[in-house]
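ok so for the tutorial part 2 we go from a plain amino acid sequence to predicted structure tokens. step 1 is just haveing the sequence, like this:
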Amino acid sequence: MSKLQNFISELQNYNKIAIFGYGVEGKSFHAFAKKYLPNTEIIIVDKAYSSEDENYLDGLREAELIIKSPGISLHNLGILYNDYNFTSITELFIKHFGSQIIGVTGTKGKSTLVTLIDSMLKNADKKSLLCGNIGLPPLEIMEQIEDDTFVVMELSSHQLHHINYSPHIAVLTNLFAEHLDYYESEDDYYHAKFNIFLHQRENDIFITNLPEQEKFFSKADIKAKHFYNVHDKELQIPYTFDIKQGYIHHATLQILEQLRELLGVDEATYTKTLREFQTLPHRLEYVDEVDGVSYINDSIATIPEATMEAVKILKNVDTLIVGGYDRGVSYDAFVEQLLESDVEKIICFSDTGKQIYEKIELHKGKKDIVYAQDLQESVQKAAQIANKRVLFSPAASSFNSYKNFMERGEHFRALVTKIKG
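step 2 — the prediction. this is what the tokens look like for a chain of 421 residues:
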């Protein structure tokens, strides 16, 4: 029996399955169920989908199995994971196809890395499919998976939370405090990430790039015999940064080189992959030049560490735009780093922008700092004061004003186009 048939067979054991959260993954499972589970009753549990707002969670009690969407925080709803028979598309997919999966997680750098891995494999004439948090639910590629297909999967902490299976090749890029509005604690967030390797077996492979391995893994059992921490790995193949093409982080290259060696990809194919790489939208993305000033869209930067890294990478950033939704992250260290940086002008907006503005204001005269009401006013002010390079790298989430970082980045692009006229 094929892996797909096993996947379907497992779900056919349930008469009633609930879809908890009717977003991208929930709708994907519903389409899958219509095709493969015609005799199974599907219950949709979603406040926006239900006509009974007050009692929409009652549908959970009716189901024998619940497919939970990653965006739903059980902690915030006061529900314990063991209260119901929960699972997820991610858990089911890794359970049945894990031996073919290269799974990538981490606070930052996931999307760029999985894109590069997928491109490298394809350039090496290997079968590769890309799915997961980067946009395509795994159920939509299952029918294309052959025995020799690599499945490159971007995995968020939300997708990994509570799962009991890990991919054959697991990659953990980095760890910083994030999504603290979703989890019980910072440790809960880290443990969700750790699920990418916690359930591996001895013949599996685990690659990470953490500078303080002992700090994070002291309580984590690494079962994989093939374990690589590439933090101190010296790059063997040179890489040249072109601002209009986009930047590949040094840490990403360290992981990619390690994978190249493990997967038997030759140097020429690897170099071709780097040469052809074009940065993904909203990740140090060159937007345009207006009156001699270049504008860079780094809307993906939802934590302070990502913004400071962007400043270091780009250099010549004289004007920085920051601010967004307050998720309880401390900005004290960030402010200290900004004060020591070469950034001359800082434009702050929104909730966290106000915090940053007030903290820097205490150091009067050290930086030219401005507070703006929103992103539109921020870009307008940047156009008036910038001399060389404007970096939009918010250091915060977008959820108080935008649906996601992508919508926020697209708005920034549109505003730059507008000032160009």
